[in-house]
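pasting for ref
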Amino acid sequence: MFSLPVNLSLATEHATSPWLIAAVGLSGLLVGSFLNTVIHRVPRMLERAWRAECAALEGRQAADLPNYNLAVPRSHCPQCHAPIRVQHLVPLFSWLWLRGRCRDCGAPISARYPAVEALTATLFAVCAWRFGLDISLLAALVLTAFLVALAGIDMETHYLPDQLTLPLLWGGLSLSLVGDGVPFPLEPREALLGAIVGYLSLWIVHHLFKRITGKEGMGYGDFKLLAALGAWLGVQALLPLILFAAFTGAVVGLVLILFFGRPREAPIAFGPYLALFGWLLLIFGGRG
């Protein structure tokens, strides 16, 4: 039977504390608000960097654009560019209070914003229930935040940026040096093997599919995300993770094609399914 090597002792002691769960869940609302910024801005930051690199390669002067990063400019409406007032920055509740529209121009605000905030709060609360008040919880929250951001970016852009997948990979490998006391007490050899097998498994599938069909089946970001999950969860997690993610992705894709008119050739993001089942294995895996 499949199992993940996680530490359950502290989870049993602290999991029933409603104050811990509530506090971590509320912090998840704030983190989710920041993750919305990451999901929206990181792809645009990368596009700016690519355009500048292309201009440099062509010997052209890159366009002189104002600073754009995770902190600048301040949050504003994408339609009328009015800065968002401080009282309207309260995660989740501000969107509900404004009924999903900009206060200044009335343009609709994407439901993705409250969805990410509510999802992050829920996942954080479940992590608190699962791991209790311990360093284990901090590690689980870091992994959860990365997975939410990566899933959101992949759903919107079909891209998993190295700026997130590689730090997640190195974080998992570094965590293996800590040893017991974290939810993933992998030996460095296990974490390294998980990363290698995770990357190579999808790399092989990708190239076999391309050789047979002449088409690109998935992107290299999926390889790196699975490698990162292998580093955090171990090689034994990879087979069920790939099977569950592939099956769910296939079912969702079939439903979209049959009932929602999605073109058969339209790409389907695989990263969200890897992130989802990676997180489920984090929470529900156990030493059997």
